[in-house]
Amino acid sequence: METILNYFETIPSTHRSILLIGGITLFWVLEGIVPLVNFKYKKWQHAVPNLFFTLTTIIINFALAGLLVFTALWVKQNNFGIINWLPEMPLWLYALLGVLLLDFFGAYLAHYVEHKVKPLWMIHLVHHSDHNVDTTTANRHHPLESFIRFAFTLFGVFIVGTPIAIVFLYQSLSLVATQFTHANIKMSKRVDKIISYVLISPDMHKIHHHYKLPYTDSNYGNIFSVWDRIFGTYMYMDREDVVYGVDTFPNEKENASLKHLLKQPFHKYRKPTTL
Ligand SMILES: [Zn+2]
């Protein structure tokens, strides 16, 4: 465990890039072999806005990383935060708790708030307005959303008290986990269900991408499914019944246009309708 944390404490940017590109490539290839939905789309054309948003997400996170490092150092020096207030525990448990709680504050809570606060929903809408959910959808976040998510992560690091090694470990796990949950790959329903007891499974997250409420407002989790189960936001529907997108923003052409997507958060508020 110590070796793992030592690695993540100083993980080079090149290794993070390899993880990002390697992950997309792996799932992209798998999508060609075992697709879940046979999309009639031009894969590269569809990927253009999504990869653009992936790039802006990287740039924003890279530019603000210093704040994370500073906060992680501060909590360590001051012995501040939930995991530091608990009794002494083995390192593996300390890291696991850190990752679990960061997943709550930095991802689940951020995502929940984005669905409930009107202007934030309009920003997060860009992620939901993809009609062809695949591995490139994972980081289809408007730049404003990247700032919002960063703020929640920063707050998470502060309140959880995670050292930078655990922050970088969490971010690396989160990167691959979201590529996996968005990937347009078909696994057996049984395997998917077993995964969903612990982690967010591809089918579980696809339900969140259904075009109508109440499903849009369910399964907010990022890596672990425990938060949806604790807070009662877990929902299930058959993968065959899932329709991607948001019913109140049905224009597929606009939803695939980078120019339009950049302006989408400034559109008048519309929430999805209920089934
Ligand atoms: Zn969402």
Describe the structure.
There is one protein chain. With 275 residues, the protein is an all-alpha fold. It has one domain. The chain has 12 helices and no strands. Zinc ion (ZN) binds next to helix 5 and helix 6.
What are its keywords?
275 residues, mainly alpha, 61% helix, 0% strand, binds zinc ion
Q: Can you list the ligands bound to this structure?
A: zinc ion
When the domains are counted, the total is: 1
Largest β sheet strand count, sense and barrel closure: none
Spans of 5+ residues with little confidence (pLDDT < 50)? none
Q: Describe the global form.
A: globular
Classification by helices and strands: mainly alpha
Element pattern in H and E: HHHHHHHHHHHH
* Overall mean confidence score, pLDDT: 96
SS elements, strand count:
0
> Can you give the helix content as a percent range?
55-70%
Counting H and I runs of at least 4 residues, what is the number of helices?
12
Strand content: under 5%
Tell me the radius of gyration: 18 Å
Distance between the termini: 47 Å
Membrane topology: Multi-pass membrane protein
Subcellular location: Endomembrane system
Domain Fatty acid hydroxylase: 99-233
Protein name: Sterol desaturase family protein
